[in-house]
Design a protein that fits this description.
The protein has about 190 residues and is an alpha+beta fold. It has four helices and nine strands, in the order αβββααββββββα.
């Protein structure tokens, strides 16, 4: 069972910001650690779950060919553009990888971070380079060819630097990933 962790707010952040964070993240507040996969309410094709280590995983089975999914997700700007929480994204080439400057919805002002997104044998992995807003941030897309379609998986560990119980952060992340996978379906014409 995952213990609730309350991160102390940095001295420069007022108590108001921490209270606002609880309000913003309080959507589904049930404990989510090690919950079994369940369909997201947007589509029976989508499932989301949280592991005991706090990794949030979303999966969707699509009818599209794996190559079409890889084309959709190939660029950081396009992939991040699928998320409703993305405010702005700018990617530049960094060898075989991309350096990504990203702004996402935050508490009072947007959260800013810089990441590095690199191709893997099965998709892409993005890791945190720098941010004052995140303690931990990484994500990974994988695309598996099923012959008659593809299985698209997104895994992430996202821990913003806010004084909010981790269980609330995980439940909010799980909800957002359900919406992200719905956007993948729409982008592929399978809504």
């Amino acid at each position: 069972m995952l213990a609730t962790i309350v991160k102390p707010a940095p001295a420069r952040r007022p108590l108001f910001a921490a209270l606002l964070a609880v309000g913003l993240l309080a959507a589904p507040t049930a404990a989510v650690a090690a919950e079994p996969a369940e369909p997201a309410e947007e589509s029976p094709k989508i499932s989301t779950r949280v592991t005991a280590k706090g990794v949030v995983i979303a999966e969707v089975r699509v009818d599209a060919r794996a190559s079409a999914v890889r084309e959709l997700l190939a660029g950081a700007e396009r992939a991040h553009g699928l998320a409703s929480t993305t405010l702005s994204v700018k990617a530049t080439t960094d060898g075989k990888c991309e350096r990504v400057k990203l702004q996402t919805r935050g508490l009072i002002t947007p959260f800013s971070l810089e990441t590095r997104r690199c191709p893997t044998a099965t998709g892409w992995r993005e890791t945190l380079v720098t941010s004052e807003n995140f303690i931990e941030y990484w994500n990974e897309w994988t695309v598996k060819d099923l012959g008659d379609g593809a299985l698209v998986t997104f895994k992430t560990r996202t821990l913003p630097n806010v004084a909010v119980p981790e269980s609330l952060i995980l439940s909010q992340t799980r909800r957002v990933l359900g919406k992200l996978m719905k956007s993948v379906l729409v982008a592929l014409g399978e809504s």
